[in-house]
Amino acid sequence: MMPSSLQQQERLAHIMLAGMGVYALLAMHLYLPHLFGIGLQLPFNLVGWFFVGLMTALGLWNWQRRRLLTSRLWLGLVAASTLLWLPFFYLHNNTVAGHALPRMLGLCGGLLFYLALQQCRFNARGRRYLLYCLLGAVSVEIMLGMAQFFVLQPDNWFGYNTQVRSPYGIFQHRNVMASFVATGMVLAIYLWLHEAKTPKRWFLLKSAWFSAVLGAGAILVVLLQSRAGQLGLLLGLLLLQPLLWQTLIKTRSKRLLASLLLIPIGIILGVFGLEVFDMSKRSLSIYTEADGRFDIYAHGLRMWLDKPWFGFGYGSFESAFYRTYATWRELTPGAKPLFTEMGHPHNEFLLWAIEGGVVPLLGLIIMTGLVLRLFYRLPIVQSLAWIGVLTPIFIHSQTEFPFYHSLPHWFMVLVLIFVIDAQYGQRRLLAPPPGWSRWPVRAWGVGLMLFMATGLYAGQQLTRYAHNDDHTEAQLAAVINPLIWYDRVAFYRHHWQLTKALLSQDQAELLDYAAWARRFVLHTPRAGVYYNAYLALGSAGREDEAQQLLGEARRLYPNVRLLRSTSIQHARNHLAEIRPDMSVAELNNAIPLYDNLRPAIGGAY
After folding, report:
1. Which of 169, 215, 522, 531 ranks highest by number of CB atoms within 10 Å?
2. pLDDT tens per residue across span 285-317
3. Of 39, 6, 596, residue with least CA distance to 343
4. Residue 555: how many CB atoms within 10 A of its CB?
């Protein structure tokens, strides 16, 4: 008879699989109107973290009652993650480290979710169902992408732009969608190569499913015109070749060969779609030009070499990048300005090295080495195949920042590595944790769920506020959880302050706004915030300070139209026409003020 502890673990595994299924097939693909952005600013990420919190709480609810089951890999990842946390506590350059806290908590949340999965008694079938859940999520995104391209009409509720016609699924960006689909295609082939041939009916249904993913996925990867997705798919398929040939030689499966032919057929259909349908087509030069990335990487490397040991401080990349680039540009004849609003160097290793120096970079290298060491325990063809499954997202993380844009990418990587670790890794049993430890762990899971639920509602409140021309300060104050949108809420709140101060000519309030703006640009330098602060100082009679601030802004952003002499002169002329009886709308129409804080997604992204 099975011991009660093992029965509990099996029940927990069934519950966890049910949660995974609901998330992968339904919740991951939720769309709600939003203000765009990255991370928790996108509703589907909030829903995803809600489910991560739920599954973490379920998996670790009674963790103090028995010895913890974990692995050598997980313990190594936890140890390496301490190196990523260490620069967070540097005192000499971390004035804006709070802006890096979300990614640090995201790292810890992922490790706790991984530990929760380890407490479930997943057998080989259960681990395979986890992979089916991932492939199911990719399948839903593929169907959504096909519907966007072929079905949706203008002015649709989804907000999909039928003029551009880039089928980005729920992700709002072509490259994020492409790497997700590419991962699913490689995973589909891997699952097929390991699929049991009996019972025959189920095998035929699964074969049809895998074939559909390959054919439709190939069409989408072409239509998306994503270099990162196409390169990741190509490398993933190449790494899968040894296992594929080994299987074909052994089974001589005609059905598998026919399904693999759907990939080139899908590519041909995708190219045909690019030519036939009215959509935004990228030039073929994207495959030969760096699209600004060479300049980003080159200057990012210069920044790291300038401060290799301690970096510029967590949360300071955007501000440090533009300030140091402006200095370098002034010393380098012929250097051109870069695009604005770039909050990431488009390479994950480079970000941590620039902000934290050598310590977090070493942590990332150790994490990568630990995963590769796990693969070393596998037969070579299996090892290459698993690396191929992970390759599309890894390539994407070295050319952009998918983990900050999309929780499903982080979720997929965690589940894939867990499955590999559970099957091939070295297990470890830890002593039962102390009884008091259950409360912080439970608080983490439940608190994460509450935070994400209130954050989802707050996002809708803020979206309605931004889209309503007649919004009021009371609507802004009613946002129930402004932490996710902290910068945006602060910007809107101080925009009200600036508007009222200009109408009343309240010098103290104008100077207070300028002081806030100076603090704000230390972590989020925006040309529009500089512009507003310049107007505030000018209206307050601080002309020298205003010109100094304007010079600083033009030095950082020499190609921004808002800072050009014509725009500045237009605004200054209208400042003299302000009357106390003017409405807010009349004031904004007269000057106008910068009133929309865009997220730092990045020009090359």
Report:
1. 169
2. 566 566 678 889 999 999 999 999 999 999 999
3. 39
4. 15
Q: DSSP states of 282-326 as a string?
A: --GGGGTS-TTHHHHHHHHHHHHHHSTTT-S-TT-HHHHHHHHHH
E strand segments, 412-488: 427-430
- CA separation for the pair 344, 360 (Å, rounded): 16
pLDDT for 55 beyond 80: yes
E-assigned strand segments in 388-434: 427-430
- By three-state DSSP, how is residue 24 classified? helix
Return d(Cα 142, Cα 137) in angstroms, integer: 9
**Per-residue pLDDT reduced to its tens digit, 537-585:** 999 999 999 999 999 999 999 989 999 999 999 888 888 888 888 877 7
What's the burial of 310, exposed, middle or buried (CB within 10 Å: 0-12/13-18/19+)?
middle
pLDDT for 601: 54
The CA distance from 491 to 311, in Å, is 28
Residue where the block lists tokens 């809708």? 460
pTM of the shown model? 0.94
Report which residue type is found at 306. Answer: D
Q: Tell me 432's DSSP state.
A: P
